[in-house]
Amino acid sequence: MSDLVLKNLSMMFANPVGDDVHALSDINFTLKQGEILAVLGPSGCGKTTLLNIVAGFLHPSQGSITLGGKEINSPGVDRGMIFQQGALFEWLTVARNVDFGLRMKGVSKQLINAKVNDWLDIVGLRGLGDTPTYQLSGGMQQRVALARCLINDPELILMDEPLGALDALTREKMQSLILKIWKETGKTIMIITHSVEEALMLGERLFVMAPRPGRLHKEYHLPFAGLGLKQDPRSIKNDIAFAQQREEILGMIWDMEEEIMGQKSDL
Amino acid sequence: MIVGILFIICVLLIIGSIIYSQKVRRREKSDAVFGNPDRAAGGWYWIIAGVSSLMLLWFYFSWDAARSFFPNAANELCQVAKVAYAINPTRSIFPIDSPVLKGTYLLARDTAHLQRIEQQVGRSSFDQSERAQLLQTISEIRSALLILTSSQYVTSKTFAELNTIAVEIEQLTAHFESSGYPGLATTEEEEAVRAQPKWGEIGIEIPFLPVTERGRKFDAASYTIGDISKRFVKIRNKSPHFEKQVTKVKNQIETFQDYSDNVIGLEQSVVAERAKLIKQINQVFKRIDDATIFPPLALDPVERAIRNFDQAQFNAQDNLRYISIFALPGGSIMASAHACSEQGAGRWLPKPADTVRNFLRIMNPAVGYKNVPMLWYEKKQVGKIIAPVIPDWIANLVPGEYPRHSEAGDVPHNFKSKVLNFARGNYRSPALPVPTGHIWDSLVRVFLGLILGVVCGVPLGIFMGLSRFAKGYFDPMIELYRPVPPLAWAPLILTIFGIGDGGKVFLLFMVAFAIMVISARAGATGTQLSKIHAAHSLGASKIQIIRGVILPNSLPEILTGVRVAVGVCWGTLVAAEFLAGTTGIGFVENVARKQSHYEIIWVTIVVLGVLGLIMDLIMRWIIARTIPWRGKG
């Protein structure tokens, strides 16, 4: 089983002036294969640091992090990344972006072409393979980023505020797409977000993080992601349970932000 | 003729553009407020107006318009200039162009000079009796001046001479103002006029012989007045009294030589000081001895006559004056004894027609410039083409010895010598056409310098953008030489590499290299971290990330750098060719400059401008083709 296991994970950033920043403190959790986890928190709580550690771009100061029993200490193809702005290679066409990972591995051309077409179908970009990516809209760019990540067949998909830059309508469509892919591929997914609604909608599990030092504040197990596979997302959002949950978490984050502001004004 | 038509077309185009612009303005939405950048969009008709204005300026200030509309004006102005040339020595004696009579000026100057010498004598090392002698002589010279300025000593012969001059000038004036002057031209004269080249034809600058009736009048008068003038300036105010006084002073001055040269026991510096003073006295005396000073009113008849004539010829110029001022702006036509020439704007701003003609002439490969065509091709054997890239030492690696000549006097060949011949291109091979000429040489130099700069600069720049070591280590070296203006390096580099292509290419390489390093570094540092992260998690290796992400991501900066480098290299090259070399556009301009060949200078300026523009357009096209995503990522 390729579970993601974090044990006593801490992260300190050296600060040349003033105190060192305690970005993450004593994070412990296990993400089982096939789970979808949303991480939510006020800004500055270490969400992105956590994701970068999982991706292997950062080394933790303390603690261990393993994926399927293997220590993570560098980026790898077993963990695919989706970024807020797509981070596409704009000098390449859609197809060349999608097959970037395969080309780097040196996979044969025919295999690449077949796989690219499959994945373009799945993300709904059929026939756009030869389009330059700079001509695509934001939502389409994120679909390309999804296909580019998934074509490598990673065990774990990491998403860093993937829908943050999209308009509301596109956002909902993309949420459905993510859920669809999650169901069809059975991948483990970890999503960082600052939208409570999105976290509720996508997270089978939901962590709310607290800042200073960044730590796991509260964990929820939610039914909405499972429902989202069958139901229209909008009807779920109109559900009373959804609304209650949202208000609770919003209040929690609101209080955290107030606390931070209070600390600042004390200084 | 053609120029005239073009001139009128240009004027019409400007007027048409203005009318059209008004029409367009009326059609447009009226809410276009000031400050809206859309107001600057479009406007091709203003481009036409601008180009036409530029052409008009050129036609006008190069006097090409004048040549077209007043083809005889230059010739007539040449005749007027001849009169001015002939009359000037006489005019300059009278207070016409200067504030005072020349005699007044000379008298004042000489008197002042004598006064200064007197004071110097007082301070000098001469003894009492010597001083008295010197001062005596100076007062004798003053007496000579007084003889010149008093009319009682002027001889009747001199008066008669002056009178003759005055009468002759008055007669000339009367003739000049009469309608028949100077009479019909002889057939010989007419033929000579017809045989002379027209204004602007190669050879003399402006036809010298008069073409028009008015011109003939001035021409004839110029010879007469020139003759009179020559005689007038030779008249001297010499009377027996004056001659006697001059002899007296001369003898005294001669005895002064003893005061300096023949005194025994004087120091060298004292001898020099004494000699200098005596020499000064002699100088003033020699000037007065010339007897060009007359009594105050003695020259009045001549002055009146000259003024009359001057007025008459000025009146006769009539509309020529306005043509000279308005049609020949920024200069005038000057005459000398045997030729007339354009001076001022007409000289250093060549006429468009002449410039085009010169351009076509040197573009003709058979003519070229300094025996080298501007841009042509030559047949070159393939062996000779590739020889420069095959080093001679590969022949040395072949075992054995090079052959030696035999006693019979023939030179045998072996494999080793054949390899050497191959490396040097000394063998028969098919000939290929290869471009050659000044323009080609300049382009090749820029191209080579640029390619070398890109090939070396881009990798180093990217390396510097990615590595702390490279950035720190190479930065001082580049920042040390980069801010130095490239031309400041030129003398040194041309000394090291010689005046051949090597030095120029290296200079351009230095220029391009620094620009490319900086732009490639900026491109590499500007790569978004998320793209590099993405490439990492897609499994790309370091090399793959550099090739597949950082390099293409830096391409906009790199290509902009190339575009800048092309421009800077082009400028540097021309200046480097100015300094040394035997081919290239800069060389052509430099030679033309030394020979005051203004048409060629303008041709090189235009050629350089057009080539620079073409190179920039090519770069813009390449940029648009290769990085369409720029600014849209």
Describe this structure in words.
The complex is a heterodimer of chains A (267) and B (633). Chain A has 267 residues and is an alpha/beta fold. Chain A has a domain at 1-25 and 41-78 and 204-267. Chain A contains 10 helices and 10 strands. In chain A, strands 6-7-8-3-9-10 form a 6-stranded mixed β-sheet, sandwiched between helices. In chain A, strand 1 (4-13) and strand 2 (21-31) form a beta hairpin. The model of chain A has no long low-confidence stretch (mean pLDDT 84). Chain B is mainly alpha-helical. Chain B folds into 4 domains: 2-28 and 41-66; 70-328, no CATH class; 379-429, no CATH class; 438-626, MetI-like (MetI-like fold), CATH 1.10.3720.10. In chain B, 69% of the residues lie in helices and 3% in strands. Chain B has helices at residues 2-27, 44-61, 64-69, 73-91, 102-123, 128-149, 156-177, 187-195, 213-234, 240-260, 268-289, 300-317, 320-327, 345-348, 352-363, 382-386, 393-397, 415-424, 438-466, 468-481, 486-497, 501-525, 529-537, 542-579, 585-594, 598-626, and strands at residues 331-335, 340-344, 376-381, 431-436. In chain B, the strands form 2 sheets. Chain B has a two-stranded antiparallel ribbon with strand order 1-2. In chain B, strands 3-4 form a two-stranded antiparallel sheet. In chain B, a hairpin with a 4-residue loop joins strand 1 (331-335) and strand 2 (340-344). In chain B, helix 4 runs antiparallel to helix 12 and helix 22 packs antiparallel against helix 24. The longest helix of chain B is centred in the last third of the chain and has 38 residues, at 542-579. The model of chain B has no long low-confidence stretch (mean pLDDT 89). At the A-B interface, strand 6, helix 3 and helix 5 of A face helix 23 and helix 24 of B.
Please tell me the overall pLDDT of chain B.
89
Count, helices of chain A = 10
In this structure, how is the largest beta sheet of chain B organized? 2 strands, antiparallel
Number of strands of chain A: 10
SSE pattern of chain B, N- to C-terminal: HHHHHHHHHHHHHEEHHEHHHEHHHHHHHH
Largest interface: A-B, 29 and 23 residues
Residue windows where pLDDT falls under 50 for at least 5 positions of chain A:
none
Structurally, how many domains make up the residues of chain B? 4
What strand line-up does the widest sheet of chain B have? 1-2
